Protein backbone atom coordinates (compact mmCIF):
# COMPACT_ATOMS: atom_id res chain seq x y z
CA UNK A 1 0.00 0.00 0.00
CA UNK A 2 1.34 3.42 -0.90
CA UNK A 3 1.87 6.16 1.67
CA UNK A 4 -0.94 8.13 0.11
CA UNK A 5 -3.36 5.20 0.35
CA UNK A 6 -2.26 4.54 3.92
CA UNK A 7 -2.89 8.14 4.83
CA UNK A 8 -6.35 7.96 3.31
CA UNK A 9 -7.14 4.84 5.36
CA UNK A 10 -5.94 6.48 8.58
CA UNK A 11 -7.93 9.60 7.75
CA UNK A 12 -11.05 7.56 7.10
CA UNK A 13 -10.65 5.71 10.42
CA UNK A 14 -10.21 8.97 12.28
CA UNK A 15 -13.25 10.44 10.58
CA UNK A 16 -15.37 7.46 11.56
CA UNK A 17 -14.10 7.75 15.14
CA UNK A 18 -14.97 11.43 15.25
CA UNK A 19 -18.44 10.81 13.82
CA UNK A 20 -19.01 7.99 16.31
CA UNK A 21 -17.87 10.15 19.24
CA UNK A 22 -20.10 12.99 18.09
CA UNK A 23 -23.06 10.66 17.77
CA UNK A 24 -22.52 9.30 21.28
CA UNK A 25 -22.32 12.87 22.60
CA UNK A 26 -25.27 14.29 20.72
CA UNK A 27 -27.68 11.37 20.78
CA UNK A 28 -28.77 9.09 23.65
CA UNK A 29 -27.00 6.02 22.35
CA UNK A 30 -25.39 5.16 25.72
CA UNK A 31 -28.11 5.89 28.26
CA UNK A 32 -28.24 5.59 32.04
CA UNK A 33 -29.95 2.35 32.94
CA UNK A 34 -28.62 1.67 36.44
CA UNK A 35 -26.76 3.11 39.43
CA UNK A 36 -23.96 1.50 41.39
CA UNK A 37 -23.77 3.04 44.85
CA UNK A 38 -21.15 2.15 47.45
CA UNK A 39 -20.38 3.46 50.92
CA UNK A 40 -23.94 4.13 52.02
CA UNK A 41 -24.91 2.76 55.42
CA UNK A 42 -27.28 5.46 56.66
CA UNK A 43 -28.45 6.82 53.30
CA UNK A 44 -30.74 4.89 50.99
CA UNK A 45 -29.73 4.19 47.41
CA UNK A 46 -32.95 5.85 46.27
CA UNK A 47 -32.05 9.08 48.08
CA UNK A 48 -28.58 9.05 46.52
CA UNK A 49 -30.00 8.54 43.03
CA UNK A 50 -32.47 11.37 43.48
CA UNK A 51 -29.88 13.74 44.92
CA UNK A 52 -27.54 13.13 41.98
CA UNK A 53 -30.10 14.70 39.66
CA UNK A 54 -29.34 12.10 36.99
CA UNK A 55 -32.50 10.48 35.58
CA UNK A 56 -32.56 7.05 34.02
CA UNK A 57 -32.51 7.38 30.26
CA UNK A 58 -30.14 10.34 30.34
CA UNK A 59 -27.19 10.45 27.96
CA UNK A 60 -24.34 8.86 29.96
CA UNK A 61 -21.69 10.52 27.82
CA UNK A 62 -23.00 13.96 28.78
CA UNK A 63 -23.13 13.23 32.50
CA UNK A 64 -21.85 16.17 34.58
CA UNK A 65 -20.10 14.12 37.26
CA UNK A 66 -19.08 17.13 39.33
CA UNK A 67 -22.59 18.53 39.49
CA UNK A 68 -24.01 15.11 40.36
CA UNK A 69 -21.44 14.68 43.15
CA UNK A 70 -22.28 18.10 44.56
CA UNK A 71 -25.94 17.14 44.68
CA UNK A 72 -25.20 13.91 46.56
CA UNK A 73 -22.89 15.74 48.99
CA UNK A 74 -25.84 17.92 50.05
CA UNK A 75 -27.40 14.91 51.80
CA UNK A 76 -26.76 15.56 55.52
CA UNK A 77 -25.20 12.15 56.19
CA UNK A 78 -22.79 12.45 53.25
CA UNK A 79 -19.34 13.91 53.93
CA UNK A 80 -18.11 13.56 50.34
CA UNK A 81 -19.16 11.94 47.07
CA UNK A 82 -17.50 10.88 43.83
CA UNK A 83 -19.46 10.23 40.63
CA UNK A 84 -18.14 8.50 37.52
CA UNK A 85 -19.37 6.78 34.37
CA UNK A 86 -19.28 2.99 34.06
CA UNK A 87 -19.97 2.36 30.40
CA UNK A 88 -22.14 1.32 28.74
CA UNK A 89 -25.04 2.25 31.04
CA UNK A 90 -24.16 2.70 34.72
CA UNK A 91 -23.54 5.69 36.97
CA UNK A 92 -21.07 4.80 39.72
CA UNK A 93 -21.46 6.80 42.94
CA UNK A 94 -19.09 6.36 45.87
CA UNK A 95 -19.89 8.18 49.08
CA UNK A 96 -18.15 8.70 52.38
CA UNK A 97 -20.55 9.20 55.24
CA UNK A 98 -19.94 11.22 58.37
CA UNK A 99 -18.75 9.09 61.28
CA UNK A 100 -21.16 9.83 64.12
CA UNK A 101 -18.96 9.57 67.20
CA UNK A 102 -21.04 11.76 69.50
CA UNK A 103 -24.31 13.59 69.92
CA UNK A 104 -25.79 16.45 71.89
CA UNK A 105 -29.35 17.05 72.94
CA UNK A 106 -31.01 20.30 71.95
CA UNK A 107 -34.40 20.33 73.58
CA UNK A 108 -36.27 17.38 72.10
CA UNK A 109 -33.77 17.02 69.25
CA UNK A 110 -30.71 14.79 69.02
CA UNK A 111 -27.92 16.33 66.96
CA UNK A 112 -25.19 14.02 65.69
CA UNK A 113 -21.56 15.13 65.70
CA UNK A 114 -18.87 13.63 63.48
CA UNK A 115 -15.23 12.86 64.25
CA UNK A 116 -14.24 16.34 63.05
CA UNK A 117 -16.56 18.06 65.52
CA UNK A 118 -19.17 18.98 62.91
CA UNK A 119 -22.85 18.82 63.81
CA UNK A 120 -24.34 17.37 60.67
CA UNK A 121 -27.87 16.02 61.17
CA UNK A 122 -30.75 15.64 63.61
CA UNK A 123 -31.36 11.91 63.93
CA UNK A 124 -31.48 9.00 66.33
CA UNK A 125 -28.01 8.36 67.70
CA UNK A 126 -26.35 5.10 66.66
CA UNK A 127 -25.05 2.80 69.45
CA UNK A 128 -21.44 3.89 68.96
CA UNK A 129 -22.20 7.60 69.46
CA UNK A 130 -21.48 9.09 72.90
CA UNK A 131 -23.65 11.79 74.45
CA UNK A 132 -21.69 14.92 75.31
CA UNK A 133 -23.03 17.01 78.20
CA UNK A 134 -21.93 20.22 79.88
CA UNK A 135 -20.15 22.82 77.75
CA UNK A 136 -21.32 21.74 74.32
CA UNK A 137 -21.42 24.97 72.33
CA UNK A 138 -20.92 24.12 68.67
CA UNK A 139 -17.43 24.96 67.44
CA UNK A 140 -16.10 25.81 70.90
CA UNK A 141 -12.67 24.62 72.12
CA UNK A 142 -14.45 22.58 74.79
CA UNK A 143 -16.60 20.82 72.23
CA UNK A 144 -13.64 20.08 69.96
CA UNK A 145 -11.66 18.70 72.89
CA UNK A 146 -14.57 16.42 73.79
CA UNK A 147 -14.97 15.15 70.24
CA UNK A 148 -11.24 14.45 69.94
CA UNK A 149 -11.35 12.39 73.13
CA UNK A 150 -14.43 10.43 72.06
CA UNK A 151 -13.06 9.81 68.58
CA UNK A 152 -9.91 8.27 70.09
CA UNK A 153 -11.99 5.38 71.42
CA UNK A 154 -12.79 2.49 69.04
CA UNK A 155 -16.49 2.15 68.16
CA UNK A 156 -17.01 -1.05 70.26
CA UNK A 157 -15.63 0.78 73.31
CA UNK A 158 -17.77 3.86 72.67
CA UNK A 159 -20.81 1.59 72.82
CA UNK A 160 -19.98 0.97 76.49
CA UNK A 161 -20.06 4.68 77.31
CA UNK A 162 -23.21 6.47 78.40
CA UNK A 163 -21.91 10.06 78.38
CA UNK A 164 -18.96 12.43 78.46
CA UNK A 165 -19.28 15.40 80.80
CA UNK A 166 -17.37 18.52 79.78
CA UNK A 167 -16.55 21.02 82.53
CA UNK A 168 -13.90 22.69 80.41
CA UNK A 169 -11.40 21.53 77.79
CA UNK A 170 -9.06 20.35 80.55
CA UNK A 171 -11.69 18.45 82.50
CA UNK A 172 -13.42 15.64 80.63
CA UNK A 173 -15.10 12.80 82.52
CA UNK A 174 -16.61 9.69 80.95
CA UNK A 175 -19.45 7.71 82.49
CA UNK A 176 -19.87 4.11 81.37
CA UNK A 177 -23.02 2.07 81.16
CA UNK A 178 -21.83 -0.10 84.05
CA UNK A 179 -21.53 3.01 86.29
CA UNK A 180 -17.80 3.65 86.10
CA UNK A 181 -16.55 7.24 86.02
CA UNK A 182 -13.27 7.74 84.18
CA UNK A 183 -11.55 11.10 84.41
CA UNK A 184 -9.83 11.81 81.10
CA UNK A 185 -8.56 15.26 81.94
CA UNK A 186 -7.39 17.36 79.00
CA UNK A 187 -7.78 16.24 75.41
CA UNK A 188 -4.13 15.32 74.88
CA UNK A 189 -2.16 12.09 74.57
CA UNK A 190 -5.52 10.66 73.51
CA UNK A 191 -4.14 7.53 71.88
CA UNK A 192 -2.53 6.33 75.12
CA UNK A 193 -5.52 7.42 77.17
CA UNK A 194 -7.75 5.29 74.93
CA UNK A 195 -5.57 2.27 75.71
CA UNK A 196 -5.76 3.04 79.44
CA UNK A 197 -9.52 3.48 79.11
CA UNK A 198 -9.91 -0.02 77.71
CA UNK A 199 -7.74 -1.40 80.51
CA UNK A 200 -9.75 0.12 83.37
CA UNK A 201 -12.98 -1.17 81.88
CA UNK A 202 -11.70 -4.65 82.83
CA UNK A 203 -10.81 -3.69 86.42
CA UNK A 204 -12.83 -3.56 89.61
CA UNK A 205 -13.61 -0.09 90.91
CA UNK A 206 -16.07 2.60 89.98
CA UNK A 207 -13.88 5.71 89.73
CA UNK A 208 -10.63 6.06 87.78
CA UNK A 209 -8.21 8.78 86.73
CA UNK A 210 -6.40 8.24 83.41
CA UNK A 211 -5.35 11.85 82.87
CA UNK A 212 -1.80 10.50 83.05
CA UNK A 213 -2.11 7.23 81.12
CA UNK A 214 1.28 6.09 82.43
CA UNK A 215 0.03 6.37 86.01
CA UNK A 216 -3.59 5.25 86.18
CA UNK A 217 -5.12 5.67 89.62
CA UNK A 218 -8.38 4.96 91.42
CA UNK A 219 -10.20 8.01 92.68
How would you portray this structure in words?
It is built from six helices and twelve strands. It has 219 residues and is α/β, with parallel strands linked by helices. The strands form two sheets. A nine-stranded mixed sheet has the order 6-5-4-7-8-9-10-11-12. Strands 1-3-2 form a three-stranded mixed sheet, covered by helices on one side. A hairpin with a 4-residue loop joins strand 9 (171-176) and strand 10 (181-185). The termini are far apart. This is FtsQ-type POTRA domain-containing protein. Residues 30-98 form the POTRA domain. InterPro entries: Cell_div_FtsQ/DivIB_C, FtsQ_DivIB, POTRA, POTRA_FtsQ_type.
Give a quick rundown of the structure.
By secondary structure, the chain is of the alpha/beta class. 31% of the residues lie in helices and 31% in strands. Mean pLDDT is 89; it is low at 5-27.
Annotation keywords:
nine-stranded mixed beta sheet, cell membrane, cell division, FtsQ-type POTRA domain-containing protein, 6 helices, alpha/beta, POTRA_FtsQ_type, 219 residues, membrane, single chain
Amino acid sequence: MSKKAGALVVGAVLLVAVIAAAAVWLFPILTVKSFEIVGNDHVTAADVEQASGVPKGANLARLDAREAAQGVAEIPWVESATVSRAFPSTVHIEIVEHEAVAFVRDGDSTVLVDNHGKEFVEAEAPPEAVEITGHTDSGSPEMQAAVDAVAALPAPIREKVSALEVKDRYSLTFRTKDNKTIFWGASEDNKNKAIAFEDVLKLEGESWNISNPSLVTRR
